[in-house]
Amino acid sequence: MIFFLLLNALVLTACSQATSKPEITIKTQEAGLAAGDVTISADVANFELVDQEGEQNNPGKGHIIYYMDVPVPKYYEHTAISKPGTYGIASNTSYTWKGVTPGEHTFSVQLVNNNDSPLPAPAINSKTVNVGPPAGKPDILIVTPAEGAQLGPGTIALSVKINNFVISKDDMGVVNRKGEGHLIYYLDENPPVDPGVPALTDRSFVSTDLNRLWKDVSEGKHTFSVQLVNNDDTPLDVPVVVTMPIDLQAQ
Predict the structure, then answer these.
(1) 3-class secondary structure for 55-113?
(2) CATH pick for 139-248 out of 3.60.10.10, 3.30.360.10, 2.60.40.10, 1.10.274.10
(3) Best CATH choice for the domain 21-131 from the list 2.60.40.10, 3.60.15.10, 3.40.50.720, 3.10.20.310
C-alpha cells in the first residue's frame, strides 16, 4: 500500500513538473510612479534567467524583454524585439526606463529564448498605469559657461542641467502634461512669462537639447537665458527661467 502511495506521489510530481509553464508577472505598483526614471520589476516562475543573449537556445532558460507603449511581438521562432526605444533586454527581474513622460503608459514583459524569440507558449504580462509628474519643483541650471568665465566674442556654447522635469521631443506641440515640456533659449531678451501665452520671440530658439551654440556673438555685455516651457510653448504655472550675464572681451 505504501509502495503504491509513493508511486502515485512520484507520478503526480512528475506530471506537475511537466505541465509547469514559464510565467512572468509585473509586480510594480502604480501608486507613487513619477515621470523620469521608472523601474519595472517582475516575478518569474518555472524559468531560469541567464545572461546568454545571442547564444544557442537552451529550453527553460533565457532572458526578459521589457516593453513600453508597444504591442508585444509573440510569433514563435521570430524575433520578439520591437522598434528602437520601445524595448529593453535584461537577464534580471527589473529594468529602468529613462525619461518616461507623465500620463498613461503600458509596460509589458516577455520571457524569451537566448536568440530573443518567444517561447513555444508565450509568457507575457502587461500593465497600464498612470505615471505622475516628477517629484519636486522643476529647476534649471546653466552648467557652461561657468559663472565668471572670461570669454571672447564669436561662438558661445551653452549647456544646462534640468531637475524634476522631463524633456520630451515627441510631445512638442501636443497636449500639456504637468512636469513635461521643452526649452526655449534667449539671447539679450527678457523671456516672456505671461500665463497661457507662448513664450516665443523673434529671436528665441525652441529645443529639446540641453546644449545650444550661439554663433557670431559680438563683443560686449550679453545676457543668455533659458526657460522651461510646456508642450505648447507656454510658461509653467510658476515660470522657471535662468539668466546669465556675460561680458565678452577680445582676448
Answers:
(1) CCCCCCEEEEEEEECCCCCCCCCCCCCCCCCCEEEECCCEEEEEEECCEEEEEEEEEEC
(2) 2.60.40.10
(3) 2.60.40.10
The three-state secondary structure class of 3 is: helix
d(CA 29, CA 31): 6
Structure confidence by residue, pLDDT tens digits, 46-85: 999 999 999 999 999 999 999 999 999 999 889 999 999 9
End-to-end Cα separation, the chain, in angstroms? 101
For strands 94-100 and 36-45, give the pairing. antiparallel
pLDDT (average), residues 206-215: 97
Model confidence at 6: pLDDT above 90:
no
The domain spans of the chain are 21-131, 139-248
Per-residue model confidence as pLDDT tens digits over 94-131? 999 999 999 999 999 999 999 999 999 999 999 999 99
Amino acid letter, residue 223 = T
Place of cell 510569433: 75
CB 206 within 8 A of CB 233: yes
Q: Residue 106's pLDDT is what? A: 97
Cα–Cα dist 140/8, whole Å: 69
